[in-house]
Structure formats: structure tokens, C-alpha cells
Automatic annotation (TrEMBL):
Protein keywords: DNA-binding, Transcription, Transcription regulation
GO biological process, one term: response to stress
UniProt-listed InterPro entries: HTH_MarR-typ (IPR000835), MarR/SlyA-like (IPR039422), WH-like_DNA-bd_sf (IPR036388), WH_DNA-bd_sf (IPR036390)
Record Pfam families: MarR
Domain of life: Bacteria
Keyword Nucleus: no
PROSITE patterns, per database record: HTH_MARR_2
Source organism of the structure: Virgibacillus pantothenticus
Protein's UniProt name: Transcriptional regulator
Residue span, HTH marR-type domain: 15-147
A GO molecular-function descriptor: DNA binding
């Protein structure tokens, strides 16, 4: 009986509940966002790379992979695909031949400028279950949670 009681206590634990609710909410939001991006002709990874380059400028391929959590092999595949579609271009580093940068092209910029307004509207719809005050509270709490246990 103590095992059953211990399991029930764990199931009632607010930390576990928070984790489960966050996981389910994240999955639900991401499925909707991914569906929206796919309807606009890109997959989520392609969009993430292009969006990073659009907003932050040229980046080394390794840094792109680190920022959007892709392995070097995966980032190479994505960059090749986007380069073949002429959405981005590679730029060799003159000072270090081991480093290659990626930069969004004019065609890529035009695509994102076409996609962004509808995509942002869809994100507004997806998050419309919260009002503006609740969104700010959620942002603050999730930021606090995300940074509380970072390695210092």
C-alpha cells in the first residue's frame, strides 16, 4: 500500500503537474505553428534558419545549429536545401577557411516578408486564450522557470 500511496503523492505533486501541463501546452502550440508554417511552403527547421538570418544577419553555420538546436550534419542538410532554393547563400570566411557563414538572400527576405504577417496573425490566434496581462505574467514566470536552474 505504501507504494500505491507514494505513487499517488507523486501524481499530485505540483512540480510534476506543471511539467506535464507545460509539455502538453508546448506540444499543442508547436503542432499548430508547424502546421501554419507548412501551409506557407516551409518546414519548421527551414523557417527557423531563415528567420534567424533575417532578423540577426549572417551567422556561421555552427552558430545557427547551436541556436536552433541542430547537429552539424542536420544544419548542413538544411542549408544545402535552402541554398538550392536560393533562399540563403553561403559566404566563406576570409580569415578562417574552416568557418562558413550563411546569409539570407533577397528571394528569402521576400518570402519571409510575405509569410510573416499571416504567421504572426496565426500566432495571435493560437495564444488568444490568454489576455495581454496573462501573456506577460506567463512570459515572466516561464522566463524565471527557464533561468532558475541554468548552470552558472
Amino acid at each position: 500500500m505504501t507504494k500505491d500511496r507514494s505513487l499517488k503523492e507523486k501524481q499530485n505533486n505540483s512540480s510534476l503537474k506543471l511539467f506535464v501541463v507545460l509539455s502538453k501546452a508546448y506540444r499543442s502550440l508547436m503542432e499548430q505553428v508547424e502546421d501554419d508554417i507548412q501551409q506557407r511552403g516551409l518546414n519548421l527547421t527551414d523557417f527557423a534558419v531563415m528567420e534567424l538570418l533575417y532578423h540577426k544577419g549572417p551567422h556561421p553555420l555552427k552558430a545557427i545549429g547551436e541556436k536552433i538546436l541542430l547537429t552539424s550534419g542536420s544544419i548542413t542538410y538544411v542549408v544545402n536545401k535552402l541554398e538550392n532554393r536560393r533562399y540563403i547563400t553561403r559566404i566563406p570566411n576570409q580569415n578562417d577557411r574552416r568557418v562558413t557563414f550563411a546569409e539570407i538572400t533577397e528571394k528569402g527576405e521576400k518570402l519571409l516578408e510575405h509569410i510573416f504577417p499571416g504567421h504572426w496573425s496565426r500566432i495571435e490566434e493560437i495564444t488568444s486564450g490568454l489576455d495581454e496581462v496573462e501573456k506577460q505574467i506567463a512570459i515572466d514566470l516561464l522566463r524565471k522557470l527557464g533561468t532558475a536552474n541554468q548552470v552558472k
